[in-house]
Amino acid sequence: MKRILIQDTTGNLKKEKRDLHISFSTQIRDRGLTDQVQVVMASDLGVYDRGLAVKVLPEGVIYGGVELKHIPDIIEKTIVKGEKVEELVVERKNKQMRIVLRHCGVVDPESFEDYVAHDGYQGLAKALEMGPEKVIEEMKKSGLRGRGGAGFPTWLKWNLTRGVKGDEKFIICNGDEGDPGAYMDRSVLEGDPHSVIEGMMIGAIAVGATRGFFYIRAEYPLAVERVQKAIDQCYAKGILGKNIFATGFSFDIEIRLGAGAFVCGEETALIASIEGLRGYPRPRPPFPSVKGLWGKPTVINNVETLANVAYILLHGGESFGRVGTEGSKGTKVFALTGKVRNSGLVEVPMGITLREIVFDIGGGVLDNRQIKAIQTGGPSGGVIPEQFFDAPVGYEELQKLGSIMGSGGMIVMDENDCMVDISKFYLGFCVDESCGKCAPCRVGGTQMLHILNQISEGKGQIEDLKKLSEIAHAMQKASLCGLGQTAPNPVLSTLKYFEKEYLAHVLDKKCPSGKCASLVTYLITKESCTGCGMCARVCPANAITGNRQEKYTIDPDKCISCGQCYEVCKFGAVLRQ
Amino acid sequence: MVIETLSEDVRKVVERWKDKEGNLIMILHDIQDRYGYVPREASLEISRQMDQPLARIYEVLTFYNYFKLTPPGKFTISVCMGTACYLKGAPALIDEIRHILHVDEGETTKDGLFHLQIVRCLGCCGLAPVITVDHKVYSAVKRSDVATIIGEHSKK
Question: Would you list the domain boundaries of chain A?
Answer without folding.
Answer: 2-88, 112-320, 331-414, 419-506, 521-576
